[in-house]
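cache lookup: miss for this entity combination. No prior model stored, computing from scratch. Input as submitted by user K.M.:
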Amino acid sequence: MNDAVSVKSLTKCYDDHLAVDNISFNVRRGEVFGFLGPNGAGKTTTIKMLVGLTEPSSGSASVAGYDILDDIVEVKRRVGVVPETSNLYDELTVWENLLFASRLYHVPKQERSERIESLLKTFHLVERRKTKFGKLSKGLKRRAVIAAAMVHQPEIVFLDEPTAGLDVMSALSLREFIGELRAEDTTVFLTTHYIEEADQLSDRIAILVKGKIKTIDTSENIKRSVRGTPVIEAFLSTEPSAKVFTEMECLGEVELNGRRIRIETVNISEAIESLVQVTSENGIRIEEVNTIRPTLENAFVKLTGVTPETMKIEKERGRR
Amino acid sequence: MLREELSGIYFILLKDLKAYYFKPPNISWGILFPLVLTLAFSLRNPAGLVELAPGLIAMAAVFGTTSMEAIVITFERRTGALERLLLAPISLRSILFAKVLGGTVFGLMISGVMTIIAMIIFGMKVTAPIWFLVSLLLTLMTLSALGALVAVSVKEVFEAQTLSNYFRFPMIFLCGVFIPIEAMPAPLQIIAYLLPLTYSVHLLRSTTIGVIQLQGFTITLIALSLFLIGFLFAAIALLKRSLT
């Protein structure tokens, strides 16, 4: 079976700036493919090349089995694109915008109304059908843009920051919709600043840094590949003296903060046994113990070199 | 394939007319502009209005097409709405052609009002109606394509307006409406023949107050058509280049 997207040595150069640097990857049919990276990593440029908005400087790619250079119109027929900006027409109503999209994508006349009705229901826009797009709230605009991208029932959907600026409920509802797309075997190519969103939704994730792909794998494997020293974190019944744990320092780095003890160690079982022994000898109860697994966010930070502070700023920017 | 391209052009045109051109303020301006033009020239020289009529129709065409056309394209580029069209299964040349048709239809409304005023108030007669319509449509499409070319050359709406004026005013003053081309100094005559409106005025005059001389009329039609093709191809090339 052909891949939904197949990219070989794709490169995009703007004057003296290398936006995408010789990347290769495949997206399987029916999978949700997360495409992550810090701002300026080349995510949007890659999408733009794949959907025919800009030509690659070199390399090749096929989308839905069609070459992006030779058969871009065939590619466009089969993909739905939700760009980062909500770019429907302010002066047209929600219904008129969806009707225009359905006409532009040659949806048969007899099917148009039915499909639009169905999308209005899916995206909870039925009551807003006669509202001009320009008058909608940010969240409703985002839903209308996604509905417009789905009107021709595309095989592959490119979602560029789909939940940016959405309220919690709208974002949740959209994530559910992405789940439904997966169930229907629609391929989803997702870029997002929300690492946890990509972690939750994606079958596989690619992390792009400065135009190059750092890794492509399942979320679990990415976390595993960058796992540092495991950490045991325990909450104790009373605040102990640091001296109590001196003999444990041979097992790893011990950090005591009030009733919380954090042990960074390669030997988890030995460290737990030692902790149990030391605490019971000193009449301290262990109230809670956790082994901390690295999150995708930890992996992302490690791979991209982007600090948590920068990521927070990027997230806030995404929300605005 | 051709059918899909044509239907795409038609639906983009319909959308543009509804979303931008046929808004109440634009329709009011479309009716007021020819009326104000008529009033201004009536006060200045009531006796020579018939002579001036083809020029006034051409002026209405210039402002009707280029003013809105340049705004619509630059506005859509800024808001990302043009990107929506570029994502659809339709060629770039069809998208641009649809945009040019939008300006043409709006220009037809304004120059149509001007023509009706010229016929009713000035007493202008259209001696060759079919050729008049062909000339007017060719003029509108050419000027609209010029508006599109200006729009794809710049990024901001105000830049499009400023750049349009570089073409609009020289065209109006040098097209032979106010001063006969033969009476101009040689360098200005050369510039006049490099401007499409000069050919438009010649065609509109020939089909109303003048006489169609087959050879001259055909050559002028061809010349104006070449301007149209040139502007269209240049606009497509510029838009394509901006995407790469």
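stored under new cache key. The domain at 231-292 of chain A is CATH 3.30.70 (Alpha-Beta Plaits).
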